[in-house]
Amino acid sequence: MKEKRATLTDPNDLVSSSGKAHAVVLDAQLCFPLYAASRLLTRQYQPLLERFGLTYPQYVVLMVLWERAPRTVGEIGERALLNSNTLTPLLKRLEAQGLIRRQRAAGDERVVEVHLTERGELLQAECACVQDALRNQVAMDPEKLIALKAGLDEFLEHLRHLEKTTSCG
Question: Do the Cβ atoms of 53 and 94 come closer than 8 Å?
């Protein structure tokens, strides 16, 4: 028997076709398809990045540095939305691979700057194929992907500016 899926087409409609409150129906949640899509997309990246010895979070950090380097650890964390407890070991691994170099800032020794090594800079050209390969695998209408990206960028901007979270109680 095929499970009935709830959808949320009207934000004011809080009850699914089965009579259950949308607040507790998985398919009516915005968070779940974002979470699931993120996990599945990251899995698609895995074999593409494996040949370069990279994980997806390492690739994200390298993309941040390919945009502009050097950057401080704080700038990288902010741009990549990574906490320092995640970022620090990740940077250590990238440094051990010879892709980056960490160094204390001359003006303020509390600040750590992250520089790309020559090998890290050269990796950018090698990784250029990753996006094309992924685009081919996803095989969606480019217009839809552009619209999805624009909508997610807008949504992310809203989330970034939330000053406090709300709770159920």
Answer: no
pTM beyond 0.85: no
- For the chain, which residues make up each domain, given as ranges? 29-50+127-158, 53-125
**Which of 13, 3, 1, 8 shows the shortest CA–CA distance to 32?**
8
Higher pLDDT, 108 or 6: 108
Report the C-alpha gap between 65 and 100 in whole angstroms.
9
Q: What is the spatial distance between Cα 130 and Cα 99, in angstroms, rounded to a whole number?
A: 18
CATH number, span 53-125: 1.10.10.10
Report how far apart, in Å, the C-alpha atoms of 50 and of each of 57, 58, 60, 116, 141 are: 12, 11, 14, 20, 27
Residue pair 115/99 in contact by the 8 Å Cβ criterion: no
pLDDT digits (tens, 9 = 90+) for 65-77: 999 999 999 999 9
CA 11 centroid distance within chain: 26
pLDDT digits (tens, 9 = 90+) for 39-69: 999 999 999 999 999 999 999 999 999 999 9
Provide the token pair at 73. Answer: 């650890």
Sign of the Cα torsion 128, 89, 50, 116 reads: positive
